[in-house]
Specification:
Low-confidence stretches: 18-26, 174-180
Number of helices: 7
Radius of gyration: 17 Å
Strand order of the largest sheet: 1-2-3
Largest sheet: 3 strands, antiparallel
Shape: globular
Number of strands: 5
Helix content: 40-55%
Distance between the termini: 22 Å
Structural class: mainly alpha
């Protein structure tokens, strides 16, 4: 079941990346990663990102450095058959691109629970000026009842100024969609 959920989440990422009007697959590249190993699927996604991401130059994305940082984590996750580590590494790779439009949809609940211990009732995302904003909030959640709203700027995380929090800690909670 976990493998199926991973494949669905990974395919959703692929669809989001290529489902823009007028896009086409390259001749020798398939966007269906379901038959690939985790390492091969990540390498294929990386190729798509380097070839198709429109703002690489503008945002000064260093794709080769990103894949060099990612590959050891994927190898470890594969060796340990650890789907949580795989998704965490993939999320870190994607969310270090400074673009609030990049997301992973349909993350399995077991992943969200293992990373964040549950949900907070809101999502946050970094923006180009370095700040972190609330991007979605569930009405009625504890965060909503405390007065948090979409667009609010996150100033601190666990009592630490948000600009001092390690990126991976922030990124690991960004797609923490509320399930209740």
């Amino acid at each position: 079941m976990k493998k199926l959920q991973l494949i669905i989440a990974f395919l959703c990422i692929s669809v989001i990346l290529v489902a823009q009007p007028g896009t086409q697959r390259s001749k020798n590249h398939s966007y269906d990663y379901s038959m690939l190993s985790w390492s091969d699927a990540v390498d294929s996604l990386h190729i798509v990102m380097t070839e198709r991401y429109a703002f690489t130059d503008w945002k000064a994305i260093k794709w080769e450095q990103k894949i060099l940082n990612l590959r050891p984590k994927i190898i470890d996750a594969t060796a340990n058959n650890d789907s949580v580590a795989f998704l965490k590494a993939l999320q870190e790779y994607l969310f270090t691109v400074p673009d609030g439009h990049i997301s992973i949809v349909n993350l399995p609940d077991y992943y969200k629970t293992s990373i964040a211990g549950g949900t907070f009732g809101f999502n946050m995302c970094p923006v180009d000026d370095g700040s972190v904003l609330v991007s979605m909030i569930v009405e009625g959640s504890d965060a909503w009842q405390a007065g948090m709203r979409t667009g609010d700027k996150i100033l601190k995380w666990n009592g630490v100024n948000i600009d001092e929090v390690e990126a991976c800690e922030v990124y690991n909670t960004m797609s923490n969609y509320a399930t209740t």
